[in-house]
Amino acid sequence: MIQRFLTDTTSASLARALDGYALRQRVIANNIANAETPGFTRSAVSFESQLRAVLEDGDSGKTVDEINNVAISSSEDDTNPAKPDGNNVNMEQEMAEMTKAGLSYRAATTLIELKGSMLKTAINGR
Amino acid sequence: MGNFSSMDVSASGLFAQRVRLDVIANNIANAETTRTAEGGPYRRQQVVFSAALDNARNGSKGDGVAVDGITEDNRPPRMIYQPGHPDANAEGYVAMPNVNIVEEMVDMVSASRAYEANVTALNTAKSMISAALELGKG
Questions:
Q1: Contacts 24+ apart (CB under 8 A), B87-90
Q2: Is B12 in the A-facing interface, judged by CB distances under 8 Å?
């Protein structure tokens, strides 16, 4: 039971989400550092849709492994129009997305903490 | 992936913007300098940035920004009529540096805002890492 409590899909997906948000923050930091580099194209990190697809698939037996294998990928994003120097970093967008990534990260750590305190309650009986 | 590599990326951005500010300050300080070691008036300098990328280590995630070098602006010097100046030519014109103070001020605001953006990115990384470290205390 405790084994299941620690390796269930919730914990696995929270851990995977932490990895994803951390990489997103790093990639956005790189976009901000290169906000004035001519010809630079911003990169973006995606993983949420793959993670959601795995979770909606059900079949708990193999889902944890599948969650741990969800791809967290960083790829160039040229949807923004480029400035005359070929750079397409939009500082407002980067700031907003970085704040979102940071808050989502904190939300995930808070949820992991809550799971831990539930287990503690079960162990202590109060 | 190193947990702290995001901070290195932001640090590279801070360094690049500080070099840019130094160069701008130097341009403003020398806006009226008519004598240099190479002869002639001071020439405006500018920094060139390039994206640092260590593909072998990071894939396409990027490694921050690098200062590629400091180049001279080859726009012609400003010619000012000032016959009493010791560096005036036969017609009474002095070659002044090709520094435009307004341009430098605009650049300076942009550099200092970019610096602040990198500080914010660094602080976000710091608060995320602290949140992860708090996990063990519950």
A1: B87/B34, B87/B35
A2: yes
Assessment of whether the complete model's pTM goes beyond 0.95: no
Lookup: tokens for B3: 């947990």
HSE, side-chain direction, 13 A CA sphere, residue B89: 10
Does residue A76 sit at the B interface (CB-CB below 8 Å)? yes
Q: Could you tell me which of A8, A117, A17, A120 has the C-alpha nearest to residue A70? A: A17
Q: In this structure, is the dihedral angle defined by the CA atoms of residues A24, A27, A32 and A35, taken in order, positive or negative?
A: negative
- Helix (H) or strand (E) holding A46, with range, is strand A43-46
Angle A44-B58-A93 from CA coordinates, rounded to 5°: 20
pLDDT in tens, chain B (138 residues): 456 788 999 999 999 999 999 999 999 999 999 999 988 899 999 999 998 876 555 555 678 999 999 999 999 999 999 999 999 999 999 999 999 999 999 999 999 999 999 999 999 999 999 999 888 776
Alpha carbons within 13 angstroms on the beta-carbon side of residue A84 total 0
Q: Does B108 touch chain A (CB under 8 A)?
A: no
Q: How many residues are recorded in chain B?
A: 138
Minimum Cα–Cα distance from A31: chain B residue: B64
